[in-house]
Amino acid sequence: MSNSLSTNTKTTNMGNKSTEEMTPEKNKRMCNACMNKISSFIIWSLETVFFKVGLFIGTYPLLTIITCSLMCGLCGIGMKTFHESQEQEKLWVPQSSRLINEKIWVDKMFPQDTRFVSFLTVQPEGNILTPEFLNALMDYYLQSFKFSCRNQSFSDLCLRVNSKCYVSSLLEIWNYDADVIRNLTETDIKLKLWSTPVSPVTGTNVQTLLGGKIKMDSNGNVVFAEATEILWIMEKQEDTSTALDFEKAMIDMALKGIHGINKTYVYATRSFDDEGYGVINQDIKLLAMGFIIVFAFVLLSLGKFDLLRQKVYVSIVGMYCIGLAILVSYGLSTALDVIYNPILSMLPFLLLGVGVDDMFVIMETWKNLSPEEQKLDIPHKLGVTLSHAGVSVTVTSVTDIIAFGIGASTAIPALSSFCIYASIGILALFLLVATVFASSLALDERRLQSGRDACLCCYKHKQPYTFNKCSSDKSFLQIVFANYYGPFLLKLPVKVLVIVFTLAMAGLGIWRAIHLRQDFDLTNYLPSDSYAYAYDHIKKEYFDRQGMETSVYCGGLNYFRMQDVLQNMLERISNSSYIQTGSVNSWFTAFQMHLHLSGTDVTSEEVFNAQLFQFMHSLYGQRFAPFVQFNSSSLPVSVQASYFTMTHSLQIDSQHDVIAMDKLREIIDTAGLPQFHGAHLPKYMCFAYSREYMTCETNKVLLSELYRNLGLSAACVFAVTVILIANLWTSLLVFVCVLFTMVDVCGILEVWGIKIDTASSILLTLSVGLAVDYSAHIGHTFMTIGSNRNNRALMSLKAIGPAVFNGGLSTFLAFVLLANSASFGFQMFFKVFSAVVIFGLYHGLVFLPVILSLVGSSPYLQAKDVPTDRTMDCDEEATNTILVSDHAAVTKNNIELIHADFSNSRM
């Protein structure tokens, strides 16, 4: 009796949803019911939209292709303002950095209007401090003045100091006097080196000109050295063609060699453009070959081996879509004034790989339509295809766009611009594949139904067409996935092995990834077989005692009043462990010494400036003249700007170079000097600046930017995946696969010796979006199939596995030719994307099906069970009305309703 009463009470109260009956278990069931209805509503909405799009495209395929092509052509007009930027400060330096304003000021006050040619002359295990070697060096010097380019010689181009051409070398301590140098003995050379520690011409510390093994006698005097440098400096002209010709002649002379010198290595202003960016531009020809390889693969994969069902024109249109996407990306980005840089040469390879992946998904869905769907007319058949494949393609495309979009917010301009170009390209590719490529399927189906030849469309085959033995209706990959691979993978012992191996691989990846080092060095992008690359490595080997060369610039100070402050600052700089001992070359110190020796009493700023002006025009002070800029060429004068030069001590890596830069800045910033006032000016009246600081500024933010981009990209990818897959648990499993893929990629990069720099940061950021492609397709397909978990995992592999595998393989083929590229950037591109493809396919086709077969979510609701209004009651009865379909498809009744709406809208 009491049980009956209790039951009745419970039944009565259920309708009122009293607090007593709202147990945690019931709350969970109700929440699940809500989630199921929300996810089903999202899927139903997306499928409906894609069905309508497919219905329109299937009805008007030619109109769709022509319209989309014209719109892409209009976007391409933006390329009329196309301009490639190669300026380091615009590409690699964060625009919020203090260095930007400092560089503007330096370029204004001390224009870097110079070009250079540098020779490193080496005598391995041999002494350069011999008469024979110095005579050979003199031959180099004299020969440089004999070159005549466009009726101009080096004398016409050179930067002059004390009326002489600026050429820095050991020869300057003999003032380039050929008669004296030709008659030198070894004793003369050693005596001169002992008595002249500083060059009288340029003020250079003589020992800094010596490299390799250096031996000294008991008195500390140099008696042996293996290498030296000779540097030619030219003034930059408006027409650089003559200077370029001179540099080319000097490069050829160095590579040819000269008698008396074992080996000469050369580097000039033009070298990086020729050897670094040049090889990137040359390797663009690999793009055409990549298109051919991918086209051949797509042609073999999409169609059958007969004259009727081959997909020649579909494959051509697929490549056409990729070309249009590249055009749109370049055109719109250029129109939006997004800078183009040489690294963007990799973008076409990226779009080639990503675009083919989406095509395979659509084609695989087209092939796998049910017998009832195969009987539909072409517009409805295409509509159903897009309704099935559209969600999966949207998941991967949107996550790619989001990942690239996050990268676009980075502080490094080159990375930001690449991500903007990529985001626009991926978006264009997504739209083009869903429209133009889908239209080609409709046209090809018309051709097929009319019995026309796959190549010669005007020719009709006799019906019924006899298919050859090689033209089977069954897909080889589907047979492999369904009958062999899938059943084997989903055996319990294999599942255990896969989980153990995946976790072990992830652990190993984490261990190696934490050892990844940050090091951005622009010279790494020189081809390993180039003369410029050889120069850089020889300089590091033989001149490894020197760090970065830098300068301290000062604005319009009252130098008379600031003498003590400046003196104290220079002493702190000289004593710093981050500055090479004896490398500070200061006009101020030399002038102070001059005043002391001459006994001159300076009592005012006017006297100070007058004495300084006279000192700069004296025989001893002339070498410091370029370091000081006066407001007038005659008395009275005042100092507008000046600078001191110095060299950092050699640091162990790029991160310590950043520390050295910051320590020098700290000494100057805390010296007690006044500040500038005004926009677009440096903050401090004195500041340290070097072109090498641009690399330091990049390295300063590189690691934090990478972590930020990866974190934000991962978070956004997960959010988008949850929304579009519409199931939290499945999205989480897909996200785990993405994380494991990224960990494994980072680990293998460390094993390959790749360091964190701008290019690898770009590629790792892009990899987040690409890694999700392989798992998201499997996860989404799993949710559309109704059965037990094991069968659903098997059916997912059969349905979408071939498309995922072909997409990964085509992506790999798109850039496989880059493996032999001479460009460091392209080689890195190949390595990173190869790792993403390999690990992405493993986690998508091996690990994820195993996990889904064990703990996968329930499938989507059937489309007809989704309420049409937005008020969805989440009561317990809803959980009892869940029906599952074999795919989350638009049912026949819905197709008819949508078609009716479509027909009415046309009327």
Automatic annotation (TrEMBL):
<protein>
    <submittedName>
        <fullName>Patched domain-containing protein 3-like isoform X1</fullName>
    </submittedName>
</protein>
<feature type="transmembrane region" description="Helical">
    <location>
        <begin position="803"/>
        <end position="826"/>
    </location>
</feature>
<comment type="similarity">
    <text>Belongs to the patched family.</text>
</comment>
<feature type="region of interest" description="Disordered">
    <location>
        <begin position="1"/>
        <end position="23"/>
    </location>
</feature>
<feature type="transmembrane region" description="Helical">
    <location>
        <begin position="338"/>
        <end position="361"/>
    </location>
</feature>
<feature type="domain" description="SSD">
    <location>
        <begin position="283"/>
        <end position="443"/>
    </location>
</feature>
<feature type="transmembrane region" description="Helical">
    <location>
        <begin position="732"/>
        <end position="754"/>
    </location>
</feature>
<feature type="domain" description="SSD">
    <location>
        <begin position="726"/>
        <end position="854"/>
    </location>
</feature>
<feature type="transmembrane region" description="Helical">
    <location>
        <begin position="286"/>
        <end position="305"/>
    </location>
</feature>
<dbReference type="InterPro" id="IPR051697">
    <property type="entry name" value="Patched_domain-protein"/>
</dbReference>
<dbReference type="GO" id="GO:0016020">
    <property type="term" value="C:membrane"/>
</dbReference>
<keyword id="KW-0812">Transmembrane</keyword>
<dbReference type="InterPro" id="IPR000731">
    <property type="entry name" value="SSD"/>
</dbReference>
<feature type="compositionally biased region" description="Low complexity">
    <location>
        <begin position="1"/>
        <end position="13"/>
    </location>
</feature>
<feature type="transmembrane region" description="Helical">
    <location>
        <begin position="420"/>
        <end position="443"/>
    </location>
</feature>
<feature type="transmembrane region" description="Helical">
    <location>
        <begin position="760"/>
        <end position="782"/>
    </location>
</feature>
<dbReference type="Pfam" id="PF12349">
    <property type="entry name" value="Sterol-sensing"/>
</dbReference>
<keyword id="KW-0472">Membrane</keyword>
<feature type="transmembrane region" description="Helical">
    <location>
        <begin position="496"/>
        <end position="514"/>
    </location>
</feature>
<keyword id="KW-1133">Transmembrane helix</keyword>
<feature type="transmembrane region" description="Helical">
    <location>
        <begin position="312"/>
        <end position="332"/>
    </location>
</feature>
<feature type="transmembrane region" description="Helical">
    <location>
        <begin position="382"/>
        <end position="408"/>
    </location>
</feature>
<dbReference type="InterPro" id="IPR053958">
    <property type="entry name" value="HMGCR/SNAP/NPC1-like_SSD"/>
</dbReference>
<feature type="transmembrane region" description="Helical">
    <location>
        <begin position="706"/>
        <end position="725"/>
    </location>
</feature>
<feature type="transmembrane region" description="Helical">
    <location>
        <begin position="832"/>
        <end position="855"/>
    </location>
</feature>
